[in-house]
Amino acid sequence: MKLGLSLLVLLFSQSLMAKSILLSGFDAFNNKKGNNSQVIAKKLQKEFEGSDIKIHYCQLRTVYNKSSETLKDCYHSLAEKPDYVISIGEGYCDRISFETMVFNEMDSSLVDNDGVIYTRTKIDPNGPSKIRLSLNLSTVRKQLPRKDRKFVKMSKKIGNFVCNNLAYLVNSEFDQTPYTFIHVPSFDCKNQDYKKKRSIEILKRTITNLFN
Fold first, then answer.
1. What's the pTM value of the predicted model, to 2 decimals?
2. Partners of 87 in the beta sheet?
């Protein structure tokens, strides 16, 4: 009886200490051969294997509205809800962007992977014009080494393509689980192998710092 109780206490304490993140990335779009959000997210999942932080990966298509439904399905399919949900997308070539704000608008010259294009269209006709993301990484950014902070920018301009559409629709969907969006250098940037490697290193430190 005492052994059984001790085992239950141990399992309960371990569950309290469990650390996990749901991480999403997009497929290639706009005739690119790949998408660094997918590549980097999958690499981060491997980087944390065997550690006390569990990374759950969710593959998204670069499609308006459908990407948010997929991420919701990934979230609700988990037996135990993650501590954080982080989406990764492709952005500027010279930086990683920690996004802080999303907007109630779809307005881009880019076509999504279902061949859809939106101009000056609201995501939610009854929703607010802008929303702050529930997980702000500004404090975590300050914990990064100085050389990394130079490569990481806090951003209030996420754009009006699928990334913004996804973040706007899911930000308040995950109960009490904080959510944020990160842009990384894209697959077709110059020196993208170096930038991809550096992004992986920085985001690995960022995720580790979330739990410190």
1. 0.91
2. 24, 181
